[in-house]
Amino acid sequence: MELATFLIDFILHVDRYLEAFVRNHGAWVYALLFLIVFTETGVVVMPFLPGDSLLFVVGALCGVGFMSFPLACAVLIAAAILGDQCNYSIGRYFGPKVFQWEQSRFFNRNAFLQAHAFYEKYGGITIILARFMPFIRTFAPFVAGVAEMSRPKFSFFNISGALIWVLGICTAGYFLGSLPWVQDNLSKIVWALIIVPGLIAVGGAWKARRASAAAAG
Fold this sequence. Notes:
Structural class: mainly alpha
Number of strands: 0
Oligomer: single chain
Low-confidence stretches: none
Strand content: under 5%
Order of helices and strands: HHHHHHHHHH
Protein backbone atom coordinates (compact mmCIF):
# COMPACT_ATOMS: atom_id res chain seq x y z
CA MET A 1 0.00 0.00 0.00
CA GLU A 2 2.84 2.41 0.83
CA LEU A 3 4.49 1.67 -2.53
CA ALA A 4 1.22 2.33 -4.38
CA THR A 5 0.77 5.61 -2.51
CA PHE A 6 4.32 6.67 -3.36
CA LEU A 7 3.90 5.81 -7.04
CA ILE A 8 0.67 7.81 -7.28
CA ASP A 9 2.29 10.77 -5.57
CA PHE A 10 5.37 10.48 -7.80
CA ILE A 11 3.25 10.40 -10.96
CA LEU A 12 1.20 13.43 -9.92
CA HIS A 13 4.15 15.46 -8.60
CA VAL A 14 6.95 14.21 -10.82
CA ASP A 15 8.27 17.77 -11.20
CA ARG A 16 8.98 18.09 -7.47
CA TYR A 17 10.61 14.67 -7.23
CA LEU A 18 12.86 15.24 -10.23
CA GLU A 19 13.90 18.69 -9.08
CA ALA A 20 14.77 17.34 -5.63
CA PHE A 21 16.66 14.41 -7.19
CA VAL A 22 18.73 16.75 -9.37
CA ARG A 23 19.59 18.93 -6.35
CA ASN A 24 20.65 15.91 -4.28
CA HIS A 25 22.21 13.59 -6.85
CA GLY A 26 23.11 15.72 -9.87
CA ALA A 27 23.91 13.81 -13.06
CA TRP A 28 22.47 10.57 -11.67
CA VAL A 29 19.11 11.95 -12.78
CA TYR A 30 19.89 10.79 -16.33
CA ALA A 31 20.25 7.21 -15.11
CA LEU A 32 16.93 7.56 -13.27
CA LEU A 33 15.21 8.88 -16.40
CA PHE A 34 16.59 6.00 -18.47
CA LEU A 35 15.39 3.47 -15.89
CA ILE A 36 11.86 4.92 -15.71
CA VAL A 37 11.28 5.16 -19.46
CA PHE A 38 12.94 1.83 -20.24
CA THR A 39 10.84 0.08 -17.60
CA GLU A 40 7.59 1.77 -18.67
CA THR A 41 8.09 0.90 -22.33
CA GLY A 42 10.03 -2.36 -21.97
CA VAL A 43 8.24 -4.29 -19.22
CA VAL A 44 4.69 -5.20 -20.13
CA VAL A 45 3.56 -5.32 -16.48
CA MET A 46 4.73 -1.75 -15.72
CA PRO A 47 2.42 0.49 -17.80
CA PHE A 48 1.53 2.80 -14.92
CA LEU A 49 4.87 4.64 -14.71
CA PRO A 50 4.85 8.27 -15.95
CA GLY A 51 5.50 8.82 -19.64
CA ASP A 52 4.14 11.96 -21.34
CA SER A 53 4.07 13.95 -18.11
CA LEU A 54 7.65 12.92 -17.33
CA LEU A 55 8.89 14.10 -20.73
CA PHE A 56 7.11 17.45 -20.39
CA VAL A 57 8.54 18.02 -16.91
CA VAL A 58 12.04 17.05 -18.06
CA GLY A 59 11.77 19.58 -20.87
CA ALA A 60 10.59 22.23 -18.42
CA LEU A 61 13.47 21.52 -16.02
CA CYS A 62 15.92 21.71 -18.93
CA GLY A 63 14.40 25.05 -19.90
CA VAL A 64 15.26 26.55 -16.51
CA GLY A 65 18.77 25.09 -16.46
CA PHE A 66 18.41 22.09 -14.15
CA MET A 67 19.44 19.59 -16.85
CA SER A 68 21.04 19.47 -20.28
CA PHE A 69 18.34 19.37 -22.95
CA PRO A 70 20.43 17.48 -25.59
CA LEU A 71 21.67 14.91 -23.05
CA ALA A 72 18.23 14.38 -21.52
CA CYS A 73 16.66 13.88 -24.94
CA ALA A 74 19.40 11.47 -26.01
CA VAL A 75 18.97 9.39 -22.85
CA LEU A 76 15.18 9.34 -23.14
CA ILE A 77 15.23 8.43 -26.85
CA ALA A 78 17.66 5.58 -26.17
CA ALA A 79 15.51 4.31 -23.30
CA ALA A 80 12.33 4.49 -25.39
CA ILE A 81 13.88 2.64 -28.33
CA LEU A 82 15.56 -0.06 -26.24
CA GLY A 83 12.46 -0.46 -24.07
CA ASP A 84 10.21 -1.14 -27.06
CA GLN A 85 12.79 -3.51 -28.56
CA CYS A 86 12.88 -5.43 -25.28
CA ASN A 87 9.08 -5.59 -25.11
CA TYR A 88 8.89 -6.71 -28.73
CA SER A 89 11.46 -9.44 -28.11
CA ILE A 90 9.51 -10.72 -25.09
CA GLY A 91 6.35 -10.89 -27.19
CA ARG A 92 8.23 -12.54 -30.05
CA TYR A 93 9.56 -15.20 -27.67
CA PHE A 94 6.27 -16.02 -25.96
CA GLY A 95 3.96 -15.59 -28.97
CA PRO A 96 4.62 -18.94 -30.70
CA LYS A 97 4.21 -20.75 -27.37
CA VAL A 98 0.93 -19.01 -26.52
CA PHE A 99 -0.65 -19.48 -29.93
CA GLN A 100 -0.02 -23.20 -29.87
CA TRP A 101 -3.12 -23.52 -27.66
CA GLU A 102 -5.42 -24.56 -30.49
CA GLN A 103 -8.44 -24.98 -28.20
CA SER A 104 -8.12 -21.51 -26.67
CA ARG A 105 -10.78 -18.97 -27.58
CA PHE A 106 -8.34 -16.09 -27.97
CA PHE A 107 -4.85 -17.61 -28.27
CA ASN A 108 -5.23 -19.87 -31.26
CA ARG A 109 -3.70 -20.04 -34.71
CA ASN A 110 -6.48 -18.01 -36.31
CA ALA A 111 -6.06 -15.22 -33.74
CA PHE A 112 -2.34 -15.18 -34.46
CA LEU A 113 -2.88 -14.90 -38.21
CA GLN A 114 -5.33 -12.02 -37.73
CA ALA A 115 -2.94 -10.19 -35.39
CA HIS A 116 -0.04 -10.78 -37.74
CA ALA A 117 -1.98 -9.45 -40.73
CA PHE A 118 -3.08 -6.37 -38.78
CA TYR A 119 0.44 -5.49 -37.64
CA GLU A 120 1.93 -6.04 -41.06
CA LYS A 121 -0.67 -3.65 -42.53
CA TYR A 122 -1.25 -1.09 -39.77
CA GLY A 123 1.52 -1.86 -37.29
CA GLY A 124 3.69 1.11 -38.25
CA ILE A 125 1.15 3.80 -37.44
CA THR A 126 0.01 1.80 -34.40
CA ILE A 127 3.54 1.78 -32.94
CA ILE A 128 3.92 5.54 -33.49
CA LEU A 129 0.49 6.59 -32.18
CA ALA A 130 0.79 4.25 -29.19
CA ARG A 131 3.73 6.32 -27.96
CA PHE A 132 1.28 9.04 -26.95
CA MET A 133 -1.20 6.74 -25.17
CA PRO A 134 -0.61 5.47 -21.62
CA PHE A 135 -0.89 1.70 -21.17
CA ILE A 136 -1.23 1.14 -24.94
CA ARG A 137 2.33 2.47 -25.22
CA THR A 138 3.48 -0.47 -23.11
CA PHE A 139 1.37 -3.18 -24.73
CA ALA A 140 1.72 -2.25 -28.43
CA PRO A 141 5.33 -3.44 -28.89
CA PHE A 142 4.60 -6.63 -26.95
CA VAL A 143 1.63 -7.42 -29.19
CA ALA A 144 3.73 -6.57 -32.26
CA GLY A 145 6.21 -9.21 -31.12
CA VAL A 146 3.48 -11.73 -30.41
CA ALA A 147 2.04 -11.10 -33.88
CA GLU A 148 5.53 -11.55 -35.39
CA MET A 149 5.61 -8.17 -37.08
CA SER A 150 8.90 -8.17 -39.01
CA ARG A 151 11.74 -6.82 -36.87
CA PRO A 152 13.14 -4.38 -39.48
CA LYS A 153 9.69 -2.83 -39.96
CA PHE A 154 9.10 -2.68 -36.21
CA SER A 155 12.53 -1.17 -35.59
CA PHE A 156 11.98 1.58 -38.18
CA PHE A 157 8.68 2.70 -36.65
CA ASN A 158 9.98 2.17 -33.13
CA ILE A 159 12.85 4.60 -33.75
CA SER A 160 10.60 7.06 -35.61
CA GLY A 161 8.00 6.98 -32.85
CA ALA A 162 10.60 7.44 -30.10
CA LEU A 163 12.07 10.49 -31.84
CA ILE A 164 8.66 12.10 -32.38
CA TRP A 165 7.46 11.31 -28.86
CA VAL A 166 10.52 12.40 -26.90
CA LEU A 167 11.54 15.41 -28.98
CA GLY A 168 7.96 16.61 -29.40
CA ILE A 169 6.93 16.57 -25.73
CA CYS A 170 10.32 17.54 -24.28
CA THR A 171 10.52 20.50 -26.67
CA ALA A 172 7.03 21.61 -25.65
CA GLY A 173 8.08 21.44 -22.00
CA TYR A 174 11.32 23.27 -22.74
CA PHE A 175 9.62 26.28 -24.34
CA LEU A 176 6.38 26.32 -22.34
CA GLY A 177 7.58 25.17 -18.93
CA SER A 178 9.01 28.57 -17.97
CA LEU A 179 5.72 30.41 -18.62
CA PRO A 180 4.10 31.60 -15.37
CA TRP A 181 0.70 30.16 -16.32
CA VAL A 182 2.25 26.75 -17.00
CA GLN A 183 4.19 26.81 -13.73
CA ASP A 184 1.06 27.75 -11.79
CA ASN A 185 -0.99 25.00 -13.42
CA LEU A 186 1.62 22.29 -13.87
CA SER A 187 -0.28 19.77 -11.75
CA LYS A 188 -3.35 20.24 -13.96
CA ILE A 189 -1.21 19.80 -17.08
CA VAL A 190 0.19 16.56 -15.65
CA TRP A 191 -3.36 15.34 -15.02
CA ALA A 192 -4.34 16.28 -18.58
CA LEU A 193 -1.33 14.43 -20.02
CA ILE A 194 -2.45 11.33 -18.14
CA ILE A 195 -6.23 11.49 -18.57
CA VAL A 196 -6.77 12.85 -22.10
CA PRO A 197 -4.68 10.25 -23.97
CA GLY A 198 -6.22 7.57 -21.75
CA LEU A 199 -9.75 8.66 -22.66
CA ILE A 200 -8.84 8.68 -26.35
CA ALA A 201 -7.49 5.13 -26.05
CA VAL A 202 -10.60 3.93 -24.19
CA GLY A 203 -12.87 5.61 -26.73
CA GLY A 204 -11.01 4.00 -29.62
CA ALA A 205 -11.20 0.57 -27.99
CA TRP A 206 -14.94 1.02 -27.35
CA LYS A 207 -15.60 1.98 -30.98
CA ALA A 208 -13.52 -0.94 -32.23
CA ARG A 209 -15.44 -3.32 -29.98
CA ARG A 210 -18.77 -1.98 -31.21
CA ALA A 211 -17.67 -2.28 -34.82
CA SER A 212 -16.49 -5.84 -34.21
CA ALA A 213 -19.78 -6.73 -32.49
CA ALA A 214 -21.79 -5.19 -35.34
CA ALA A 215 -19.79 -7.10 -37.94
CA ALA A 216 -20.26 -10.35 -36.02
CA GLY A 217 -24.00 -9.72 -35.58
